[in-house]
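The records we work with from here on pair a chain with its fold. Here is one such record, which you should read through line by line:
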Amino acid sequence: MKVHQKMRVWHRYLGFFLAGIMAIYAISGIVLIFRDTDAFKKVEHFEEKLPAGLGAEQLGEALKMRRFRAEKEENGMIYFRDGQYNQATGEAKYSKKELPFFLDKMTHLHKATSSRPLAFLNIFFGISLLFFVLSAFWMYFPGTDIFKKGLIYTAVGLVFALVLLFV
């Protein structure tokens, strides 16, 4: 089997193998674009019993809220975005906007860092995508019209991506 034939076979079967993963990355990528909005999120209400007498900084840590900021403190109550805490009783009532379970898991896959086991899947997927880029040039023989048109589309796509990247 010649190199271009092998590339076509590998391209085809790796594409079939990664079809599900590509769908998950595509959907989670779209969801992540809207992470600064409440799109796709649902509101969940919480009531927690915390130690009494916490200050604003300690409260943020106890609730495990990033970028926690107390808006107001009066009469033994700490008011914060979407909730309140009673310093005398330790009772905290608040709500959070979170993605549904499945979408949350998908976005965590998409955002995996090097310290998480899913990083190896992300690395494998990235290398596979690079293989798709390179193996696409072995789909057609050089010198044919379709290959020449493919190179033109590649150049236009690359310029388009660079313009979007730097604008």
In short: Helices lie at 3-33, 56-62, 101-110, 119-135, 145-166. The radius of gyration is 25 Å. The chain has a mean pLDDT of 93. Residues 77 and 86 are 5 Å apart (CA to CA).
